[in-house]
Amino acid sequence: MTQIYMDMVATGGMPEMVFEYILKQNGLDPQKDLSIDQSIDFGSTAAAFAGDDSADFTVEFEPSATALEKEGTGHVVASLGVESGYVPYTSYSAKTSYLKEYPDVIQKFTNGLQMGMEFVREHTPEEIAQVIAPQFPETDMETLTTIVKRYHEQDTWKENLIFEKESFELLQDILEDAGELSRRMPYEKLVTVEYAEKAAE
Asked: pTM of the entire structure?
């Protein structure tokens, strides 16, 4: 049976839910067709994978995935982000009362994020790596550039911050499939895109 390492997460952790959703979409049963080891601390799965011949695959965040390749102990074979589609992995939430009282703050915040999206779209991986390097002091420039190139080639970054209904429904599909969602919610009730649309103009 195929052995896969994943970081230690509570039942329903987002990385595993996305991973298992992709497996099921490709005809694999996560409970019957493979063995997922969740006993390893976050941040230690790459080292465990490199030092243990019993695991066939590991699910890694960057820079761990690229580090395994550089060390010659692993190869990136697929991107969960590519395989799953645009999962709204990061979103910003605010109370309705805050939106009503401080719409200018929300708009400025959203405009700032949109500027970041535009910077990524308009600059090379090398330039982006230079800018983000201070946030990753433990990662060398070559590795950072490789990661940014990979994200660029995979179309990881959207052009704007608009949270489309299709992505919202995909998120609910994943949560429902994992048994973590008892009732679906209407997109219109939870999502507002007016600030993102204005920022993208």
From this structure: 0.81
